[in-house]
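Hey everyone, long-time lurker, first post.

I ran two proteins through the pipeline my lab uses and got sequence/structure pairs for each. Pasting them in order. The first:
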Amino acid sequence: MKLKGLSCCWLMLWRIVLAVFMVNLFFPMTAQAEGVIYAGQFSAANPDDRLPTEWKPLVFKKITSHTRYSLVKDGTTLVIKAISNASASGLIRKIRINPEKYPVIQWRWKAANILNKGDVTEKAGDDYAARVYVTFEYDPERTSLFDKAMIQLGRLIHGEHPPIATINYIWANKAPMETIVPSPYTKLDMMIVVETGKESLNHWVLEERNIFNDFVTAFGKKPPMISGVAIMTDSDNTKESAIAFYGDILFKQR
């Protein structure tokens, strides 16, 4: 009986030690998850769905040929695949995020090719094999009369009330890295080159940017609330073709 009681004590002690070990093992993972907002957790999507339900088509007036997006497996990981044939459209998730609290955006992407006629300074070359862009809320009280006029012009392009501004992170064909220029269509869209050329083609690239600092650099003022995140592969201006893949997109604290 004494041996049996002793064995029970050791078994109970072992369970306590194991429980403490498991807490210590998994608590750091929980802590790392805190302070993170997944805008696009494609890897955790339902593999039977064509697209994640939170992401909706983003189309533009007068553009009738749209890029095709689908949920596919790259190895064992679910990602978004984009195929563009002289087409343009995107996928967008409307999500409200405070860029002061979550200033860092991180994502993975892979491009199969670049667009030979692409040019960040010309409307005829305003196409990109891959882009991730962030939209910012329109606040009439913080918007100048000039910007309000530009927003109305943007409404004609977007087909709906556009955001006050966007930051576009692009994979260009030849523009130098870290180039920051306004879109040839509107100065409310700023283009930032984070990948360029053929060197990284067909390889997954992990990107991380401080969206708060990028907005200040691009627009000269603090950003308003983030209103959405979009991905887009387009080739309607160059009349070329492009294939790209997009992995998870998240925002995190510093």
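...and the second, right after it:
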Amino acid sequence: MSEIQNILLAVDAVVFGYTPVEGLSVLLVQRRFDPHQGMWALPGGFVREGESLEAAVSRELKEETGIEIGYLEQLYTFGNPRRDPRRRVVSVAYFALVRPETFQLSASSDASDVRWFDVQKLPDLAFDHGHILATAIERVRSKITYEPIGFNLLEEKFTIPELLRLYETILGDKRNLDRGNFKKKIKSLGLIEEVNEQRKQPGSGRPARLYRFTLSQYAEKKAQRIFEVLFPQSPKR
């Protein structure tokens, strides 16, 4: 005789933000109700009957934070039987990377507040959301070494130091970048092109040349794992 299941399905959203000044942040909401009332958590909630996972995570983001994101990538499914004190809840998590200044935050629904937090200065998180966030950070750090996922995080025109800072901020100390040859290597990939403009850098008397992304050759080169030029295999321990 088969056992009757009593499991709820939920979604959670890990929305990373990046600015050249503040670095990498994550969007969190303050819970209005128990369990974990007053604690900070990832935006999310239960999936409704007849609702797709993608529709559910978009709805919860809109309801709790006031923002809409065109595309979120599925991260992982979290199903520890004790992850929610109320009952058995399985959550499918999604993630995205955005520029925070393009959004106007507005807490509502189950959230009493919503803020961007530096990923290095996080409060204690409700449920298993610390584990979900750590998983998302590792996914982003891995993904940025083989796909240009950071392209939407910079302005249309940027300097090489700004691009270098983007990679260093997201990767942290997980991978070693050859800073001395970064400019030469990134240009060799054919994904950026120089524009006939310059911009003065903070703390520097010399203006830096500006570049922009060009993805015309990306699809063709992707299969060649072009980002191995930037991220050679680390020695095995």
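Reply from user beta_strand_b:
Welcome! Quick read of the second one: The longest strand covers residues 8-19. The chain has a mean pLDDT of 89.
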